[in-house]
Amino acid sequence: MTEQTRFVSAMGKTGRVVAVRLNKGTDLVQGVIDACKKHGIRSGWISSMIGSLQDGAQYVAIAMDPKAKTGVGFTERKTINGPVEILSGQGMIADRGDDLFVHLHAVFVGLDGKVIGGHVERGFAKALNTLEVVIVELEDAVIKRELDEETGYTVCMPRPL
Q1: Does residue 43 form part of some domain?
Q2: Looking at residues 90-119, what average pLDDT do you find?
Q3: Of 108, 111, 117, 136, which Cα lies nearest the Cα of 36?
Q4: CA dist., res. 16 & res. 44, Å (int)
Q5: Is 104 contained in some domain?
Q6: 134-146, pLDDT tens digit by residue?
Q7: Does 117 reside within a domain?
Q8: Of 22, 21, 7, 16, nearest in space to 44 by CA
Q9: Contact at 8 Å (CB) between 55 and 148?
Q10: Residue 58's CB: how many other CB atoms inside 10 A?
Q11: Residue 30: which H helix or E strand, with range?
């Protein structure tokens, strides 16, 4: 029996590339959104992200959830004790009508040397010394935030213009 490959895609091209440094105390996700708005970017991706976060940053990770359609959901927010270094981060920038949504994942290392990772949300991670982000604009296509009926989750969906 052959499995069917299923996907949604839209062809676009790389637009402008914007390098951003978020200063101490700036919320990571809001800072990316504000930089995108300043440069008129409505859709794209974060190709690179490094830097450090203040004590108390929070993230969510994948977890089993028997109530979810797929059997998998997310943890409650987890707090990172102490400042952390971001080893790597990538994400999608989605057009949400009058706002933007940043779907951001990152890998962190704490003072104890433990490496953790997960989904970073707006309002829960502030820059410590610096956060350096490279944003790439998507042209001739758009990434939208839409409900996926099959999974029950709102996801980033590529769409043609």
Answers
A1: yes
A2: 94
A3: 136
A4: 10
A5: yes
A6: 999 999 999 999 9
A7: yes
A8: 16
A9: no
A10: 16
A11: helix 28-38
pLDDT (0 to 100) of residue 1: 63
Examine residue 6 and state whether it is found in any structural domain, yes or no. no
Tell me whether strands 127-139 and 44-53 are parallel, antiparallel or unpaired.
antiparallel
Give CA–CA dist 105/46, Å, rounded. Answer: 10
Phi and psi dihedrals of 10, rounded to 5?
-150, 135
Q: Mind listing the pLDDT tens digit for each residue in 36-95?
A: 999 999 999 999 999 999 988 888 888 999 999 999 988 888 888 889 999 999 999 999
Q: Given this model, what pLDDT does residue 5 score?
A: 92
Cα gap 38→76, rounded to integer Å: 32
Which domain covers residue 72, as residue numbers? 13-160
Question: What pTM was computed for the model?
Answer: 0.92
What confidence score (pLDDT) does residue 2 get? 75
Say how many domains are in the chain.
Answer: 1
Tell me the CA distances in angstroms from 143 to 12, 32, 158, one per residue in order.
10, 16, 4
76 DSSP assignment: P
Residue at token pair 């997960």: 118
Q: Kindly report the CATH number assigned to the domain that includes residue 54.
A: 3.30.1330.80
d(CA 84, CA 110): 5
Which one, of 85, 89, 88, lies nearest residue 104 by Cα?
89
